[in-house]
Amino acid sequence: MVTAFNVIVFGEAGAGKSSLINMICESPDLTPISSDARGCTFNSSSYSVTLAGKLFKIHDTAGLDEGEGGHIPTSEAIVKLYSLVKSLDTGVSLLIFCMRGPRIKDVAHKNWRLFHKINRQSKVPITIAITGLEAEDNMDEWWPKNKGAFQAYGMNPAGIVCITTTRGKHNKNGSFKFDKEYEESKLKVWKLIRSHHLKRPWRVAPVQWFCQIITTTYESRDWCKDPKEIKQVTSVAGEGIQQLVSKCEMSQEQATELGRLLVNV
Description:
- The protein is α/β, with parallel strands linked by helices.
- 32% of the residues lie in helices and 22% in strands.
- It has helices at 17-24, 74-87, 106-118, 142-152, 179-196, 239-247, 252-262, and strands at residues 5-11, 45-51, 54-60, 94-100, 126-131, 160-162, 210-219, 228-237.
- The strands form 2 sheets. It has a 6-stranded mixed beta sheet with strand order 2-3-1-4-5-6. A two-stranded antiparallel ribbon has the order 7-8.
- The chain has 2 domains: 5-196, P-loop containing nucleotide triphosphate hydrolases (Rossmann fold, 3-Layer(aba) Sandwich), CATH 3.40.50; 210-262, no CATH class.
- The protein is elongated, with a radius of gyration of 22 Å.
- It is built from 7 helices and 8 strands, in the order E-H-E-E-H-E-H-E-H-E-H-E-E-H-H.
């Protein structure tokens, strides 16, 4: 039996994750595509594709920022993503962070840093697919112009592709406005996957969200009897929560709440 390399696509709602997967797998209607402000991907879905003789399983996930206007609360989407990463018995070979250009939204770098810190012990490469660049004169020129902003945010991907995931409107001759850009984009993403996936998949190690402090006291009510030993266990924030506070702009309360959701994953 051939073991597939697992590739996880994640990012904010509306970034084009489902369209990206449809393009990778060369199917226009493989995954449902949401055209409104609400997210349509709740539980992760996976799709198989063979590239250069290797079998890959592409996993779609919930939008990380789908909260106030979406169906999926942000914390729940993060838990779903983290749970998926940990649950894959054969390991993870590549992560693709999907974000929509041409402007960099504040939520993009926050989501990147959040998952990067949660996943910090992992050796899995995190790459970026910038979508929505079909109107650019040259899609590949977008990255050199914006690379500095990413670096300022601490976003240093293992690889990046500047693409479109839409063919655009119909032309009178039956073709589509962005057919050329779409086909170029598909080849770029295929190359990204082939070039950056781990040949030996990585099993993600658990994160220490909480530490337990055991306090021992002794109570003696009768001088002629041995004192009674009393142990009290207190949970305190672990390294994982402290990282969320210091690196991801979360309050202690927000980080602790998220840690409690992730600790049992």
